[in-house]
Design goal:
Keywords: Allosteric enzyme, Carbohydrate metabolism, Glycosyltransferase, Pyridoxal phosphate, Transferase. This protein is about 40% helix and about 15% strand. A hairpin with a 5-residue loop joins strand 23 and strand 24.
Length: about 850
């Protein structure tokens, strides 16, 4: 029989055990080993049945057991110690509190997904895991972040396989009352709500759930409320589900509703209002419109409000390809804004202009969320050095006249939250080596360039640790594989072979991620005979564990999964290669530590960062990867191997895959397996252990989320807070007025004459050449502009590379025709073909970048020809 109504019955904890409730409701337990150990000791069987979720655990424990624990003085002492530790963590001074004054009082961090723990399944892949690690690291550092997201009633889908290996999706319903969440309430105990206006007088309402991530509150908006019609109730049903309008509703709720939720939370709790708003990818970009509307309601005009909002906004892009950006039909967006819908005080045309693709090749009828994100943020970044470069090139059309390297998009390379991803066995070894507090600080706060203490760990200990982790993974794989085959319809009598799957003494390769085509799940199958020989080699075998989900609408990705599964089903190799369905955080926390090699073979440069290899490295796993994302930045032969790429223009895709697959096989056959299996005098793989040691000591400190968040604070949050404070209402009006005046007058700005003291087209290194430049400024003054000499080596097309910029100074006042003479020296500090040009840019003390206005003037052709702008 099926229940007609469902309740969540919460346990009544005896008085002495009340702190367990606080510990369960703060998600710090997900990365704090002592808290998890305490909950496990409450009831080990119930803990396993609850999949390590304290909230579910407390709902399963028998009252008799709770009464027994309430009288157990040893348990109560442990409970008091863990509860006191949490209190110290939440209230004590941390890194952020020791920094200089001027840092933002609070930062709001918006993301469409958050991967905090498997007990709160609100993530699909790397973007969400990164967002979760960002919140955890901010908590460890004491950064006053407020997270903002959506609560999806089905989360992301659960994955199983059919008998023939086809991916199948399942969407279990999540009850917020059974999750580690608390509903935000008004003083009269009624649920706190936010509401968005929809066309036709309708409304989209959402309540606010709070997940406490250590010191960081995470606000999750839930549209499944009785006040909504059926369609609106389903807005937060699935992560990345539904059609265009459904996605638009989700992103309006995340951005606009999210700002309103932050205001509500600060009003109810007294938390400081954010000075900086950080949007993690373009999904939350509408938050800028809501903040503009707030300022317009307070008396600012749109242009002044736009400047004030931009000053305090940070935008992070995660996609290296235009196809990965959310784009909506302009008419659809226009229908949901304006007098009959949301933000009625803002002209719809101004809204649509923010998302317009004004660059060459742009689609005029589409509204681009990343373009809006860049226009609403004074500071933007990619997530690795290479991705920053790719992003500057991809969005360069928004800043016409500037070289890609000058596009105002910087980079902060992602990191991973070590306390979440480091195996307990690795943590215990670190604690034994340097002590508990130093180990915790090293993994969470970071700051050191090297972990020198790793050098003191004996080789035998490192190798035993690696073998222990590999053996644990083997047992995990067999258990998951058996469950998967049962779901596929196999009976126990068919599954005896699973007891021989994988070997704890065989070189183990891991490959787990989402399955879009560019990540090339099946590159390893390019030459199946050669792969089979690697798997079954009599002296140096390898074994491979693969996992990953294809998007439900991506049949191409599903075919890749099926192809891999069918190969892994082959009785000849199924003991050496396995595909595990339903990849998620719980599986990943076992998979990364147990592998010896982490494989990553995307199409370069389509991997923005790729943090899974970082998590593996923190456990002593070596990376085998294409030079893309973070690996392009930090690869050293000490840390693993780089797969050569064949990514030249015009390379046939099939031929490229053949070349790169062959390079992968070569590395495994000739360099990797011999090193793993060779033994020194003590019977240990000395050279392999040395690579593990260097990975931990030199790469480990780089890949920390603590390092990443400290970079965000220093390079983006702190400057954004200062800019936000500088943009008072009057200053914002002045800046907006100045920009309008400069844009109107810019057609009258020109470079009229350029001359140098160089008499010949050649010069000696170290020579200084004098420049005299006459410019027309029209209605502008020298205070409005900067005249620059840009110089450097030139290529065959006379394009300047590795440029040096020197400002020129006005030499006197304007002549009768309004022209101003500028002078300055040009130092010829490099040999070979060398050139210079002149340009004029607007300048203002409140601009964050010289390219911010997108305005630049360079000499016309006739001036160039007369001046001999290129010296050879």
């Amino acid at each position: 029989m099926k229940a007609i109504r469902r309740f969540t019955v919460r346990p009544v904890l005896p008085g002495p055990l009340r702190p367990l409730s606080d510990l369960a409701r703060n998600l710090r337990w997900s990365w704090h080993a002592e808290t998890r150990d305490l909950f496990q000791s409450v009831d080990p069987e119930a803990w396993a049945a609850a999949a390590g979720d304290p909230v579910r655990l407390l709902g399963r424990v028998r009252p008799a057991r709770l009464a027994e624990l309430a009288g157990d003085r040893r348990f109560l002492r442990r409970l008091t110690a863990v509860a006191d530790d949490l209190d110290d963590y939440l209230t004590g001074e941390r890194w952020y509190q020791t920094q200089a004054d001027g840092l933002p009082a609070a930062i709001a961090y918006f993301s469409p997904e958050f991967g905090i723990t498997a007990a709160l399944p609100q993530y699909s892949g790397g973007l969400g895991i990164l967002a979760g690690d960002h919140l955890k690291a901010a908590s460890d550092l004491g950064v006053p972040l407020i997270g903002v997201g959506l609560l999806y009633r089905h989360g992301y889908f659960r994955q199983t396989l059919s008998r023939d290996g086809w991916q199948q999706e399942h969407y279990p319903v999540l009850d917020p009352n059974e999750l580690p969440l608390t509903q935000l309430t008004e003083p009269d105990a009624t649920p706190a709500h936010v509401s968005l206006a929809l066309p036709g007088g309708k409304a989209l309402r959402a309540r606010i759930w709070l997940a406490q991530v250590g010191r960081v509150p995470l606000l999750l908006l839930d549209s499944d409320v009785e006040e909504n019609d059926l369609g609106e109730r389903g807005v937060t049903d699935r992560l990345y589900g539904g059609g265009s309008e459904h996605r638009l509703f989700q992103e309006m709720l995340l951005g606009i509703g999210g700002v309103r939720a932050v205001r509500t939370y600060c009003r109810l709790t007294g938390h400081p209002e954010p000075e900086v708003f950080h949007t993690n990818e373009g999904h939350a970009g509408f938050l800028g419109l809501e903040r503009i509307a707030e300022l317009c309601a307070a008396g600012l005009d749109f242009d002044a409000a736009l400047e004030a909002v931009r000053a305090g906004t940070v935008f992070t892009t995660h996609t290296p390809v235009p196809a990965g950006i959310d784009r909506f039909d302009r008419d659809l967006v226009g229908r949901h804004f304006g007098p009959d819908a949301e933000l009625p005080g803002i002209d719809v045309r101004r809204v649509l202009e923010l998302g317009r693709e004004t660059y060459p090749g742009g689609e005029p009828n589409l509204f681009n969320m990343a373009v809006m994100g860049l226009r609403l943020a004074q500071r933007a970044n990619g997530v690795s050095l290479l991705h920053g470069q790719v992003s500057r090139e991809m969005f360069a059309g928004l800043w016409p006249g500037f070289d890609a390297e000058e596009v105002p998009i910087t980079s902060v390379t992602n990191g991973v939250h070590a306390p979440t991803w480091v195996a307990p066995e690795v943590l215990r070894l670190a604690t034994r080596q340097v002590g508990a507090q130093r180990a915790e600080d090293a993994l969470s706060v970071g700051g050191s360039e090297r972990w020198d203490s790793v050098a003191d760990i004996p080789d035998q200990d490192i190798w035993e640790l690696r073998r222990t982790l590999r053996e644990r993974l083997v047992l995990e794989v067999r258990e998951r594989l058996r469950a998967s085959w049962r779901q596929r319809g196999a009976g126990d009598a068919e599954l005896g072979w699973i007891d021989g799957v994988l070997d704890p003494d065989v070189l183990t390769i891991g490959f787990a991620r989402r399955v879009p085509s560019y990540k090339r799940l099946t590159l390893m199958l390019r030459d199946r005979d050669r792969l089979t020989e690697l798997l079954l080699h009599p002296e140096r075998p390898v074994q491979i564990v693969v996992a990953g989900k294809a998007h439900p609408a991506d049949d191409g990705g599903k075919r890749l999964v099926q192809e891999l599964v069918r190969f892994a089903d082959d009785p000849r190799v199924r003991h050496r290669i396995v595909f595990l369905p339903d990849y998620g955080m719980a599986m990943a926390q076992r998979l990364y530590p147990g592998c010896d090699i982490w494989l990553n073979n995307p199409l370069r440069p389509l991997e923005a960062c790729g943090t899974s290899g970082m998590k593996a490295a923190l456990n002593g796993c070596l990376n085998l990867s294409v030079l893309d994302g973070w690996w392009d930045e930090w690869f050293q032969p000490d840390f693993g191997w780089a797969i050569p790429t064949a990514d030249g223009a015009g390379t046939d895709p099939d031929h490229r895959d053949d070349i790169e697959a062959a390079a992968l096989y070569d590395l495994l056959e000739q360099r990797i397996t011999p090193r793993f299996y060779e033994r020194g005098r003590a019977g240990l793989p000395d050279r392999w252990i040395q690579m593990v040691r260097r990975t931990l000591s030199l790469l480990g400190p780089k890949v920390l989320a603590g390092r990443m968040v400290r970079e965000y604070v220093d390079r983006l949050y702190a400057p954004a807070a200062l800019a936000h404070r500088a943009l008072t209402p009057d200053t914002a009006r002045d800046l907006a007025g100045w920009k309008a005046r400069v844009r109107a007058a810019w057609p009258g700005v020109s470079v009229d004459h350029v001359e140098t003291t160089a008499s010949t087209p050649t010069a000696e290194l170290g020579t200084t050449v004098g420049l005299r430049v006459r410019v027309a400024l029209g209605e502008l003054t020298p205070d409005d502009v900067e005249v620059q000499a840009v110089s450097g080596r030139v290529d065959e097309q006379d394009r300047i590379t590795d440029a040096t910029v020197v400002p020129l100074k006005p030499a006197g006042t304007a002549d009768l025709e309004g022209r101003v003479l500028y002078e300055g020296p040009l130092s010829l500090d490099r040999t070979g073909p060398y050139g210079y040009t002149i340009r004029i840019l607007p300048t203002h003390p409140l601009l964050a970048s010289p390219a911010e206005t997108g305005l630049v003037t360079i000499p016309p052709e006739e001036v160039v020809e007369g001046a001999g702008v290129v010296l050879r």
